[in-house]
Write a structure and sequence with these properties.
about 5% strand
Length: about 270
């Protein structure tokens, strides 16, 4: 191709005033959230190291339980150095700190479940019950998964990542139709929505079999349950910690393996 035939289209350039897409904006925010979690985990590891070191030094200096060990007594410290003993106890200490972090609430919440399209839904005829329950489950809080974030259909709360986005006017999920109370993105609904079973939830039903909805003003014990996210299958604490770590790993990988542009984009030619 000669200079005269040169294609002067400028691919990939963007005007400084060009707006960014929601997908690009959310991708940037997700990256910042993962950086925040990485920094937090580094602090948890440092805290675990300090605790393990303090415990070992206390055990050796004071001769306290569970294994009294005066300084430099190989018979009672099994000949291990302080460093070796700290390294041996560090994994369990870190697990305990992470477990406490899981149950004490998260600045960044993420659903650690499997693919939502593999989930078998609860046997509840939602469409037939909407006129009774008014889709109360759509006012409950839960976290989205990396799968939801990658699809970009389900909206999340930028101020409380990655919780489902809700309206201030009525407290419902933003995808809930205020007239019919039906889900407007039903085919893309999150795993938690697919798996949720309202039949034994006192926030929704006083008596499911008799089709008696919970009162508009719930009793105290039900109000207390309102602070609990939408119910999901129970995980033992150890499993919850592992599941969260795996979910964070998948989220980090999803961001790293994604691309900012889906296809070639022609922008304004740069000024000479």
């Amino acid at each position: 191709m000669s200079d005269d035939d040169h294609d002067d289209r400028a691919f990939g350039t963007v005007a400084p005033t060009a707006p960014i897409t929601r997908a690009d904006f959310e991708r940037a925010i997700r990256s910042l959230h993962m950086s925040d979690l990485d920094l937090k985990d580094s602090l948890l590891k440092l805290a675990a190291h300090v605790i393990a070191l303090t415990d070992e030094l206390t055990r050796r200096i004071d001769g306290v339980e569970p294994t009294p060990a005066p300084p430099n007594t190989p018979a009672q410290s099994n000949g291990y150095t302080v460093e070796a003993m700290v390294a041996a106890t560090l994994p369990d200490t870190l697990h305990q700190i992470r477990a406490h972090d899981v149950v004490s609430g998260q600045r960044v919440s993420i659903d650690p479940g499997s693919s939502k399209y593999d989930v078998e839904g609860a046997p509840v005829p939602c469409a037939e019950l909407l006129h009774l329950c008014h889709a109360r489950c759509c006012k409950m809080t839960f976290a989205l998964s990396t799968q939801d974030l990658d699809e970009g259909v389900i909206r999340w709360d930028y101020g409380q990542p990655y919780l489902i986005r809700q309206r201030a006017s009525d407290g419902y999920c933003v995808h809930n139709d205020p007239d019919s109370r039906g889900c407007t993105v039903h085919a893309f609904r999150p795993r938690v929505c697919r798996q949720y079973d309202c039949r034994t939830d006192p926030r929704v039903w006083t008596d499911y079999d008799a089709r008696i909805p919970a009162p508009a003003t719930p009793p105290a014990e039900v109000l207390e349950a309102e602070a609990t996210p939408i119910n999901t299958p129970h995980f033992e604490l150890l499993d919850r910690v592992r599941a969260r770590q795996l979910a964070i790993h998948h989220e980090t990988a999803a961001i790293a393996q994604s691309y900012a542009d889906a296809e070639p984009v022609v922008g304004p030619a740069p000024r000479k």
